[in-house]
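Give me the fold.
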Amino acid sequence: MGIALILSIITILVRWIFSKRRGAISYDSSDQTALYIRMLDVRVRSQVGFEPERRGSHPYLGVDFRTLHSRAESAGSIPARRIRRLFSFQRHLLSSRLLRGAPHLNPLHILDEDYCGQAKCMLEKVGSWNFDIFLFDRLTNGNSLVFLTFHLLSQYGLIELFQLDMVKVRRFLVLVQEDYHNQNPYHNAVHAADVTQAMHCYLREPKLAQSLTSFDILLGLLAAATHDLDHPGVNQPFLIKTNHYLAALYRNTSVLENHHWRSAVGLLRETELFSHLPAEDSLSIERQLGSLILATDISRQNEYLSRFRTHLDENDLNLGNASHRHFVLQMALKCADICNPCRPWELSKQWSEKVTEEFFHQGDIEKKHKLEISPLCDSEANTIASVQIGFMTYVVEPLFAEWARFSDTRLSQTMLGHLGLNKASWSTMEPEASGSSEDGESDPARASEEPSSRALTQGSPES
């Protein structure tokens, strides 16, 4: 009876808090006018009787994107994951009260024991390339992004150095995690945590560790954690062809990346994380954060890769130069964003299945509403293996080959080794590809497809 009462109180509290929040802030960079986009959690909205707003000219765009990949829940029962979420939120409130010196009435701190156990042990090896983010997410009850990012900020001494309010940091990370759509098979908070962990691995590489400033590291971690914030689970071409309001807002240019950035800025301002800094410093953080996140636009992949290759050919990268360090951070974030094929097979395969599931969901929506099916989103014309082989060949290999030229370390060689093994494993699962290579023939459609088209659709593992 006691636990049921606590859950009821927490449920009411969560509903009230989310009903007060209007979601992330996105604004037009041309006039800096704030535009509040109502993106309340679909579960809370349905519970309090809200209906999704209709936007655009297509009827299905009235459906909140968070319902695209949701699973049906049995009526009359509270799912275990929702209960864990409520306890996690309660833990956040408790920690905030303790940090402020406020007494607590109930000994609910025992709920933190799950994190202090195995999850804490995992964080001792957070710099390992074999780090299993899926296991870590389970051990933290679905709060991998909050705990991992908070741990890294503390480990680098950034909270103390920048005199950050720990309550504000925790609140910011909780809101960031909540603004990811965890109904998305791929673009969710676990992906953001994985990218943040990869970014940490790159920041520890000798060339970067010896030259990056604490400010650079802070930007890198924040950009990794927020780089896909509020991702709707569909790509930019889908938003454009359906006349989505975000496409109109950002004039069909880096639509998702602009929204991720502006949503991150909205949460920074909402939590006042940097309000103690001079105004010009906080604005500089926002601008440079945007520069990093916008670099993940896969449609600009060749632009960044060509510039990186030119620097390496001419051997003129000077990491004592702030602009050069920022460019290297952009390349590091791009690598972290699409590093899944460079992970050990057990991890890489899971990510491949998740991103392809998300593509095929989009294709199913396009079929249902008689829209042109986006490349790689047709489950009848593509397989997981064919999608991954193309992505590795045209997008991942060129980028990581250049990164290895820049940072020729054991980690770089390990990543390239996994990439080769994973590509070979997918090739054995693609009979048509292996059959055509044995016959010395090639598929005309595959041969004629430009790398950029593949990049646009795998797109963010990023668009």
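The beta strands are 25-28, 33-36.
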